[in-house]
Amino acid sequence: MLGPVIQAGLDALKCADRAGKLFIFHTNLPLLDAPGKLKNREDRKLLGTDKEKTVLQPHIDFYSKLGEECVKAGCAVDLFLFPNSFVDVASLSPVCYLTGGSIYKYQYFETQKDSQRFLADLSHDISREIVFDVMIRVRTSTGLRPTGFFGSFFMDNTTDLEMGAIDCDKAIHVEIRHDDKLPEGSAYLQTAVLFTSCSGQRRLRIHNLALAVSSDYNQLYRVADLDCLTSFLFKQGKRHLNLCFRNVTVVFE
């Protein structure tokens, strides 16, 4: 049983009128007759066939809808999984990535081998900088517009990114499209982040960025951030795979 446990934690935060994060420790596939029940879909005969992609998709949308409820309440969910058999991460993961949470998986957990890694992960998760009930909007100057967003968040419209929480290890990629002639001089980007701090204060943080406009490709390549571009291309490729399940070679053609 997993769904009712997350719902109970969410209800507790709602009753306390607080944003926060749920730490869920789970070991097996939720098979009991309760909300969020899953069935064992493991079938090694599907590996390498066209039907393999069905196992990589969520089996039900319960955890996606639950993730959306958590976001609206300013609640993030972290899953610590300790399975000894198939646990269907594909179906469980939406409740984490929609809320800005994380998944930690320790297959065939052994105390002597895995305890230090688990304790280090848990300690880092609890102690790192974090804010809750987050909403982000990106604005641009004339000639530019944000068209794509990549990361762990929920979007109820085309402009606002919502998360139950965001921490110092999370990053969001925004694809900015050049649709019109840019004015000479500079182009401007603004990111506004509305969040609740750990002390309970509602705050607004605004980042402004001015970028030089140039028609010289040599200058463009000289200042390009290769790490950022590589990460962006991988995230873009993953989205294409999720949408159309093409081969990796086709996506990057």
TrEMBL record:
Classification via InterPro entries: Beta-sandwich_Sec23_24, Sec23/24_trunk_dom, SEC23_SEC24_subfamily, vWFA_dom_sf
Domain Sec23/Sec24 beta-sandwich: 132-214
Annotated Gene Ontology cellular component terms: COPII vesicle coat; endoplasmic reticulum exit site
Any one biological process term the GO annotation gives: COPII-coated vesicle cargo loading
Start and end residues of each Sec23/Sec24 trunk domain: 2-125
Any one Gene Ontology molecular-function term assigned to this protein's record: zinc ion binding
Protein name (Swiss-Prot/TrEMBL): Sec24d protein
